[in-house]
Amino acid sequence: MATHSDAMAVKSLNTAGGRRRFAFKSISQKIEEIYVDVYRSLDPLKAEPSEGSSFFRDSLAEYRELNTAEDFISLYEETFPLVQTLPQIILQKDLIISSLLSRLKMEGRLSHEPILRLIAALSRDLLGDFVPFLQRIADSLESLLESGADRDPEIIEQILTSWSYIMMYLQKYLVRDVGHVLRITRKLRYYPKDYIRELMAESVSFLLRKAPVQQLKKGITKLMTEVVEEPSEMRKSGAGALISHAIRISSSKLHSKTEMLMPMLVDDSTFQIGDQSVE
């Protein structure tokens, strides 16, 4: 009898040698590849957009040549007149965001990659003006995952790649209030699927490592408070994964911030919130 994992098997090019050109990979195998590649696969960044253009407009034009999905074509036709200059993008940012997020539906999966990349490109154009949209974006990503994307490794990777770009582009603004980022990402960091929690922890840990000491302390305290408020296994594993990724660069190498993080993690005051404690 076929299992759910068998049903989700993906046919991929066999790069391990042998006679078979293709090999079937289960969803768990595909997700394991995301753990390894989500950051390493980030493409080299253009330092500047084309002259007189913007990162968003450049990306929109590029994907118009690559993607012919119905949802993306309608997005292109709807937004291209609004993004001819950067001042125009700033003025029309609410409408552009709404156009992007409204198309993040499972039935439009062929358009997901360009849309998610365009969201990241827009964050690079708007910088600080993009921060107020983060909650809407996080909510849309959660809805997309809940509608079935959490069982599709390709879409999961697209989501995490986009979010990683956003964290990188906006780090200057986000490290000023780590608690705000933790609030925005709470539902994603404590998502029911353990592999989503792990991947989100890896993405958000980037900001903990970049944050100044005071913001780092606030972030750790915020994490502990979340676990105390709801000491479920999901929250414990999600918070633990975030701390684990924050203190290590790889499985065998610790990050330089570890020297500051470890005293916070063994300080009793960090683990005592009100009349409760984190065990």
From TrEMBL:
InterPro entries: ARM-type_fold (IPR016024), SSU_processome_comp_20 (IPR052575)
Protein name: U3 small nucleolar RNA-associated protein 20 N-terminal domain-containing protein
Superkingdom of the source species: Eukaryota
Organism: Erythranthe guttata
